[in-house]
Amino acid sequence: MAEKRTIKSARENKTRYTLLGLLSLQPMTGYEIKQFIGESIGHFWSEGYGQIYPMLRKLADEGLIEGTKEESSTRPERTRFHITAAGRDGFEAWMQTPVTLQPMRNELLLRVFFGTQAPAGTLQKLLEDTMEAWKGYLDVYRGIEKMLSTQLKDSPSCPYWLMTVRQGIHQMEANLKWGRESQQTLQALANDK
Q1: What pLDDT, on a 0 to 100 scale, did the predictor assign at position 188?
Q2: Global pTM value
Q3: What angle do CA 120, 121, 123 make, to 5 degrees?
Q4: Residue 81: beta bridge partners?
Q5: What angle do CA 125, 175, 138 make, to 5 degrees?
Q6: Which residues contact 25 (CB under 8 A, 6 or more apart)?
Q7: 152 Cβ partners below 8 Å, 6+ apart?
Q8: Which of 2, 38, 75, 82 is a Cys-bridge partner for 27, taking CB atoms 3.0 to 4.6 Å apart?
């Protein structure tokens, strides 16, 4: 039970630093933060509105961010947040701490582990479908890599963003290699029956 609390608090802390990091790039509203996540780090990190808005309030209460109200005649009032000096200091301190590795959760591997319980052909179909999804991700990541290398190549953040997308490319390539190997194993097992 204590381990779950540690993981939960680690997750909360990561939300804290995710928001501080994003606001260190530029001031944003909660909605803009969610949109930015979807267009950038959302390929490897997610935060929902239910995590974003309570944490923004908490960070503001702690003086790590400040909000400025923006009024508009065409939309409801919104608050644009920016990081404070204390928030930047806290974020920079976090960047220097060791990474907390989270336990991996992979439903495909869970099903493969219980493969002897699956009806014939089930795992082959699941693997085939999953590999198609991985190919799609690989195409997306390669597209992002190309866009970063051409359109944003002059940004000081570009080399760091490229490192993250290349990790995704390498991961999908490794997944596909494992998938092809596993297809061969499943075929051999089917032939032995």
Answers
A1: 92
A2: 0.79
A3: 105
A4: 28, 67
A5: 100
A6: 157
A7: 158, 161
A8: 82
Confidence tier at 7 by pLDDT (50, 70, 90): very low
Rounded average pLDDT over 16-33 = 95
105/114 Cα distance (integer angstroms): 15
* Residues 79 and 67 sit within 8 Å (Cβ to Cβ): yes
What's the CA gap between 18 and 105, in Å, rounded? 21
> At which residue do the structure tokens 């702690």 appear?
62
Check whether 3 has a pLDDT greater than 60.
no
Cβ(73)–Cβ(21) under 8 Å? no
Instruction: Show the 3-state SS of 27-84.
Output: CECHHHHHHHHHHCHHHCCCCCHHHHHHHHHHHHHCCCEEEEEECCCCCCCEEEEEEC
Which tokens belong to 161? 């963003």
Which amino acid type is present at position 134?
A: W
Shortest CA distance to 122 belongs to which of 108, 132, 104? 108
Helical pair 2-25 and 85-95, crossing angle rounded to 10 deg: 120
Q: Which amino acid is at 46?
A: S
Task: Specify whether the CB–CB gap between 49 and 34 falls below 8 A.
Answer: yes
Q: Which two tokens stand for residue 103?
A: 């336990």
DSSP 26: S
